[in-house]
TrEMBL record:
Its cofactor is FAD. Residues 261-389 form the Acyl-CoA dehydrogenase/oxidase C-terminal domain. Belongs to the acyl-CoA dehydrogenase family. Signal peptide: none annotated. Residues 6-118 form the Acyl-CoA dehydrogenase/oxidase N-terminal domain. This is Acyl-CoA dehydrogenase. It comes from the Bacteria. PANTHER family: ACYL-COA DEHYDROGENASE, ACYL-COA DEHYDROGENASE FADE28. GO terms for molecular function: acyl-CoA dehydrogenase activity; flavin adenine dinucleotide binding. InterPro entries: Acyl-CoA_Oxase/DH_mid-dom_sf (IPR046373), AcylCo_DH-like_C (IPR036250), AcylCo_DH/oxidase_C (IPR009075), AcylCoA_DH/ox_N (IPR013786), AcylCoA_DH/ox_N_sf (IPR037069), AcylCoA_DH/oxidase_NM_dom_sf (IPR009100).
């Protein structure tokens, strides 16, 4: 493995950073996040056109740029650096990856090009939190049957699906933590089908503009820059994504690995920016006749954060490279996400502490980075559970949860 980035990869990151710096600043992003859609639609379309952010990792035959996980990670790092409110994670990563993993060639040609050009957006509706539904953390609910998975709902709730004739299905249920769920043009819904004897997870496509029985509302989340919505489906007609007779759980695990990489990259970017702003501030803030950055205690604290951020960046890039060489191995990306979330929390917490009273004011950006750190851990898993999951999958710890009961073991 060559750890050095190529010239093209460097240019992608630099170009996106320049565009974000020129197109809008913190105040514009705040206004966009507080708007009804939760993001600047015009800016998103410009980013989709140049530098092609919306379809960066999608195939060229479907309107994308045809790049790989490393380029996607670099783009997400730049987006995370400015806490960009956009459909990048929900539409271009979660939903697009689900369509790519489960859809037929015909569905690829129909659904992916509008997402790649930014003309439409999509959201992936999962019961519970994405961390559990995508298999990033151990499932706390006992599930005796291998097919009874959290992503489909099952006895734990979620969305239920039953055939409605002519190849269509009827969906009934709800999902409470759907990224961009209140504003997306297209919903990809993970539903439980087959009842108890033939339990399985199936993905369905719902056009939000033509779906009687669909009700959506945006939630008041911790992080204003990441829109989370509640989706309710009351006998909504939907078409299956791919073959409804097949269990989509393995595909959702693949979606989870790609989402974990994107979130890790965003967290690294946010942590790096929070650290940089704190370093700038301690060099000008005077106390006892000298800059507070000259005090040894402050230097040590910022040095610890710097080490955490650089370690997280190395882990994230290694996970991105591993996604091209060993795409089925989830351990590198789980550990990268754990490192990144830890670094993001540390950098944001130190930013709050070292900025003093101004950090908790609404006008300052420090609290936005702290809220992003808290929200990411709630949605995508606390670091200790991510590490526990990686330890289980790598054989360091005995399996628990779904793996243990599926293998005939007992839960403790």
């Amino acid at each position: 493995m060559d750890p050095a980035l190529t010239q093209e990869q460097d240019e992608i990151a630099r170009a996106l950073r320049d565009v974000l710096a020129k197109q809008a600043g913190p105040e514009e992003f705040r206004l966009a996040a507080a708007s009804a859609p939760g993001y600047d639609a015009q800016l998103w379309r410009r980013l989709a056109e140049q530098p092609g952010l919306a379809g960066l990792a999608l195939p060229e035959c479907h309107g994308g740029s045809g790049l790989g996980p490393v380029e996607l990670a670099l783009a997400c790092e730049e987006a995370g650096r400015v806490l960009l409110p956009s459909p990048l994670l929900a539409s271009s990563v979660l939903a697009a990856e689900a369509i790519s993993a489960c859809g037929t060639e015909e569905q690829h040609g129909e659904l992916l090009p509008p997402l790649a050009t930014g003309a439409r957006t999509a959201a992936l509706a999962l019961p519970g939190t994405p961390a559990v539904a995508l298999g990033l953390v151990p499932d706390p609910i006992p599930r005796p049957l291998p097919g009874d998975v959290p992503s489909g709902g099952g006895r734990a709730g979620g969305v239920q699906a039953r055939p409605a004739g002519d190849g269509l299905w009827s969906l009934y249920g709800e999902a409470a933590h759907v990224l961009d769920g209140a504003r997306a043009d297209l919903l990809v819904v993970a539903a439980h089908a087959g009842g108890f004897p033939r339990s399985r997870t199936v993905l369905f496509v719902v056009d939000a503009a033509d779906a009687p029985g669909l009700r959506r509302e945006r939630g008041a989340g911790i992080d204003q820059t990441r829109s989370v919505g509640r989706v309710e489906l009351r006998d909504v007609t939907a078409r299956p994504l791919g073959d409804p007779a097949l269990d989509a759980s393995p595909a959702l695990a693949r979606v989870g690995r790609r989402a974990a990489l994107a979130v890790a990259a965003e967290a690294v970017g946010a942590a790096d920016r929070a650290l940089a702003r704190t370093v700038e501030y301690v060099q000008v803030r005077q106390q006892f006749g000298r800059a507070i950055g000259s005090f040894q205690a402050v230097k040590h604290r910022l040095a610890d954060v710097y080490v955490a951020v650089e370690t997280a960046r190395s882990a994230m890039l290694y996970a991105a490279w591993s996604a091209t060489t060993a795409p089925e191995d989830p351990v590198p990306v789980l550990l990268a996400l754990a490192h990144a979330l830890t670094a993001q929390h540390s950098a944001a917490a130190e930013a709050i502490q070292l900025h003093g009273g101004i950090a908790i004011t609404w006008e300052h950006d420090a609290h936005l980075y702290f809220k992003r750190a808290a929200a990411d851990e709630l949605l995508f898993g606390p670091p200790h559970l991510l590490r526990a999951r990686a330890a289980e999958l790598s054989g360091v710890l005995a399996p628990t949860g779904t793996e243990a009961t599926a293998a005939g073991g007992t839960r403790r």
